[in-house]
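Collaboration report, partner site 2.

Our partner group contributed sequences for two proteins of shared interest, and the home lab folded both. The records are reproduced in the order in which they were received, starting with the first partner submission.
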Amino acid sequence: MEQTYPKVLVLTRNAWNNNNCTGNTLSSFFASWPKERIANAFFRAEKISNTICTDYYRVTEQEVLRHILNKNASLGREFTYSHADGDDIPEQNDNDIRRNAKLYSFFSRNRWNLAIWARDILWAAGNRKNKSFDSFLERIQPDVIYMPCYDSVYMHRILRHAAEKTGARVVLFTGDDTYTFRQISFSPLFWINRFINRAVMRHSVRLADTLFVVSELQKEEYRKYFGDKCVLLHKGAEFNGFSPKEPSDPIKIVYTGNISSGRWKTIAALSRAIGEINREKTRVTLDVYSLSARSEKMVREMSSGKGVSLMPPASSAQIKSALKNADLLLFVEPFGLRDSLKWRLSFSTKLTDYLASSRAILAAGPEKLASMSFLRENDAAICVNDISQLGEKLGCIVDDPSCLLEYAEKAYLCGSEKCTAEVTQNTVYKYLSGENYD
């Protein structure tokens, strides 16, 4: 029986770009969706890079501010864009993108609550009665609205307006703990912001039929708040056959992904261990690929060891090549209590890519975090739960790399059972089409 795909409107804060984890995950979820049955509205001046969607609406914070100052200023626009065909995004200036990237990078490093509230007020004041967005919604007429659960009040307001305007069903996704109180902060403003975000998320989940979550631990906890709406969904990958490689000399370690929230400290600890191992001869190297903002201190400490390189920004295709050429893939979580609580329910999107790569994984992080629990329970990685033992474990691997082929196979088998693209896309189709109600 031929599948009938509902028309989906994807709401995202960022542009849909496969070079970041949000865009990469979206492409994993909607890879099988027909182009004529999907559209994306996004709310930052950023570059698009995906082969899934061609129908877009964009409004930026600069436009919102100009509209507040001048009611006749344009606010948002619809356009079609095909990354595969090399089209240019209409009226999008590369200089604007670079300026915005610096601004977003600054605020990602310095999440000042007052600045966050000012942004929400800006959107509330400047994006009301947005006729161009309403026109876009009337043209699209979505059956379903899909949105990641951002910790941004204005995104939830946009979702609520779109749902009320169209009558579409709502499906949400959350990859982080943006709801519970299991956090550490001594700032009253942090807790005020937490209460606000809990309220808007609770309202959005009430609108939704389904809330996708990324780990068994998150599903268990969130079902206490949201009931059976919580459905487990991992990012999927193609598992096209196990293709291992013999370890090279020196052993090549590759890390890809986020270095914020204390992860860089774990990488720095490994960097120091690599420096010790390579004191007389280079026996192991580490290449770090990350789009995260980094301070001078982070750069200095992560690259302190001989043989460690912080690589320039890379495309998704370049990342795939780096994984293929590696002997060992590094996965890290923060060990500090505050940061580990922040990420305790998350399942890193890059883990799926690691599992599909036919390479062994060295995972370092507290054992109770969801990602670490998954790897340990499935024996899918060489796990280190005490940062003081990281250097010793790496030394054992360097002295006897025969375990790399064994753990490469274990990782691949785990992923092929639990994280395939087919299972992911079938789950997305089932809940967005409403088949789960049949």
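Second partner submission, folded after the first:
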Amino acid sequence: MNERMPTVLFLDQYGAIGGGQRILLDLVGATVARGWRVRVLCPSGSLFDACRHAGADVHALLLPPMKDGPKSTWSLLRVWHASRRIAHEQEHLARESDVIVVNGPRTLAIARVWVIRLRKPALLYLHGVYGRVENMFIRSFLALPRTAAVAPSPLVAAPFFRLKNVQVISNWVSREFLEASANPARLRQMLGMTDTHPIVLVPGRFSPNKGQRLALEASKLLSDIPCHFVFAGAPLFEGQGREVEARLREASDHAPLRIHVLEWKQPMPALYDGADVVMVPSVWEEPFGLTALEAMARGRPLIVTNRGTLPTLTDHGRCAQVVSADAQAIAAALRSFIADRPEWEDRAQQARRHVEEHFHPQKLQAEVLAVCESLLRS
């Protein structure tokens, strides 16, 4: 008799695809590849469509809106109340599933109802550094039987260091970043560039935290150097990101041959392949830094700020130039790149090997799924 394969229910709080959602998508693919049945409950959007394309049974989730940044007790209680209603409406999905994977804290209250009422095991995926009230809810959830959490870095895990059911398992790069053929011409073609000036790529979600405005300041300090600054991203689920996007587009209107803003719709590796150097200018304590890892996987020279996990991720300067989060330091690093590109290219190839050794998706996805299996046995 064939052993029945488990059913996993993934919960996500967003419909757009950011870094955490790309990790979820990879896990959905890895779970489907094992022969497990996969259900996803998330808002409508690009994530909904991508999960369905990956072979998951996808259901729409309607959460109340919530502002960016630390959440007030009132807003969390409002979501908590709505979550109990959603948990009741979607309880059939949980009943038919063997383990629940909660991708971020906004759907935690839904999963909590199912863990208590149905005694389902649940894995919480932590992607950020949260506020005091959110951490309180997370600790309360992790005090329940048959629960565990995964954090991608020690920084994210730090508030929960006393809890034995919290593990640090690094994020990874998607397989395409290690396997896709190089396509360095695609980005220039998309932007209609006819010169050979260096491209400085600033990828990622538009956000005050991600440092796009800092990169703009650095570009002004390099007015004597012909180059292109390409800001590739979108505000996604962050309201303040729209203000950042407006500032970037204003700068592009004033210098259209130097400042470029685009939302990349092509295969992601080709975006990095077209860059001469990639910049990750975060100004907050970066919980992980997936864009930096992707640049390293494509063997591109890289500049990161010394915020959060970025220095550790880049092996403390062996795989990237690590600078302070100010415009002058970034501009100086870019001048160094222009002056000595061969040395930077050598370091970029070392970064590629570092990713293959420490951030390979097959190994790290297996570690996450092993946590799910452990919960199933509990």
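Feedback sent to the partner group on the second submission included the following. The first helix runs from residue 19 to 33. The CA atoms of residues 210 and 282 lie 4 Å apart.
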